[in-house]
Amino acid sequence: MTLELFHNHMSTCSQKVRLCLAEKRVTDWVSRHIDLGKNEHLEPAYLSINPNGVVPAFRHDGSIIVESTVMCEYLDEVFGTMGELTPADPVARAHMRAWLRYIDEVPSMAVRVPTFRHWIRPKFLAMSEAEFDKYAERNPLRKPFLKRMGRAGFSDADYDVAIWQLRQSFGRMEKVLESSPWLCGSRFGIADICMVPVLARLEDLYLGEIAGEFGRVSDWYARAQARPSFALAFYDGSRPRRAEDYTLFTGKAVPAHGSAAGSAANATPPSV
User: Architecture of domain 90-265 in CATH?
Assistant: First the structure.
């Protein structure tokens, strides 16, 4: 069965689908990289695959599947041992689905705010108003969002709300992790997969201390990073950390290259 994944190296939604592929031990998928910096997601060829104009999407034996959380659930049903990333108990499964809705609606949306402010806003500010309006009009799904945000990006109030939402998310995780190693019980599953890229993005923005305030969440993330799937999903070139971001976000000089932070600060810059 042929599976083509249309994704971007640094997209958080693409990262979670790659995590799921790795957990399901699917290795023969075909990579179709979509360059967001070149607006390939808005070209007719990609819009014919995903009319929402966002990544990821995949084509499996001719059928198109979109929406990253849906894609993860599909992978768990179709590949390997069916349902190995989903609780068997109906109540636990309902709790998983509630987590998935919450993750999609709260932390996944919240982490976009610092991402747009620090990485994408410079691209918009370089545009004229006419150019930005033209870009927004081309976005079939995000046009109202972009129009509301404007070239200048999110307000300080929006930013503060997003950070509050992230802390709320980690607080909920902290409570659940008192009684189980993973978000939905004893096994690493789809809810965990969908949350991992949020923490990775905060790390890449040098905002990891937000999650670091929560001890069980930090332990959960360390254990997720230690899984073989993490290295497969977050390969070289998929972690957009920049030296200028380190100084901007921390107010400190970039550490010596030999340190962990210094190595991260000299990683490949994002293509957004």
Answer: Up-down Bundle (1.20)
